[in-house]
Amino acid sequence: xxxxxxxxxxxxxxxxxxxxxxxxxxxxxxxxxxxxxxxxxxxxxxxxxxxxxxxxxxxxxxxxxxxxxxxxxxxxxxxxxxxxxxxxxxxxxxxxxxxxxxxxxxxxxxxxxxxxxxxxxxxxxxxxxxxxxxxxxxxxxxxxxxxxxxxxxxxxxxxxxxxxxxxxxxxxxxxxxxxxxxxxxxxxxxxxxxxxxxxxxxxxxxxxxxxxxxxxxxxxxxxxxxxxxxxxxxxxxxxxxxxxxxxxxxxxxxxxxxxxxxxxxxxxxxxxxxxxxxxxxxxxxxxxxxxxxxxxxxxxxxxxxxxxxxxxxxxxxxxxxxxxxxxxxxxxxxxxxxxxxxxxxxxxxxxxxxxxxxxxxxxxxxxxxxxxxxxxxxxxxxxxxxxxxxxxxxxxxxxxxxxxxxxxxxxxxxxxxxxxxxxxxxxxxxxxxxxxxxxxxxxxxxxxxxxxxxxxx
Length: 457
Fold this sequence. Notes:
alpha+beta; 6-stranded antiparallel sheet; 5-stranded antiparallel sheet; 26% strand; elongated
């Protein structure tokens, strides 16, 4: 019995046209009710999806990216993410319905990712719903920095980078300590095509066995500081070379060292300090006077050549290593021994009157009296050590962050591990100077000053 016959049983009489109209009206009414019900369900689920807290962090070009969020299974039959490929990413959906977006973005920009989903109760033919969520891939910060060569017609021009390796020949089959040093123009200077203000010089005197090391950081605010740092290093090292080349000076100095090693007492401490004053103290003072001479010739104040100076001399004796130093300005100079978990600073960062300032070799108060110079002198006798390191604040600031951290062995351990992870500090490695120069390119947010380091190892 079909529907029309059942209607007759119920004494509903209609023409064929009325029957067709009834069927059409009834189906349309039911379909509209069905569509409205589906739309209500879809809107409810869509609103719930829209209210979900899906916020993924921005990424950075070249840096591994990962973000995870979950979509409740009671709301969706299935879902996927569209647009991730354009951002250089991919995604995985786990059994717990959590979605993990991963990858290493290669292109910077803003991308509109979309959550595409089939809502609960979805059947074939119903629309796929979407919820957009943007992501920004930031450029690699390093790529934003320009590297404009310093014009060669710049007054007091010096190359944008420099490095050197000093090999010391094996003695009776025993490897000797070598030296390596490197200096890299900072990103802030390179971005504007300005010259490197740091300088260094290292020497080994084969006839006497003395090592001489100097690094200097020209003040960024001083017009000719690059020349000041050069004069400071060259003059101080030349003074020490001249001192050690004089047979009497060398003999007397080494006799004082031996006496100091074998004796004790305040008088021997003072005796040794006086001799250190004659060597590295005078080396620093001569550097100051040489800068004054250059400034006078230029017709400008000496402060236009403002620079720091870290100077060290050392030699291995039968009883151990003797090290002496002079330090003015910021940066760091340290004897470090990895095995013994030991370090000794050869001075302190030299802050000025206000926080964040530093003192410079060109300031009159540095040499106002003997006490001022003596306060900057250090000497030490060590059985052995892993390295003697001198560095400008372009290295020490990002590696230690605060002056207080210079007094933490774990920070020196971390620095040494960082360096030796890229620089092979082994005997006769002539490539170490280039490895060290490459290491100086390390990235540290907000630290883009010139970087210079010299290592005896």
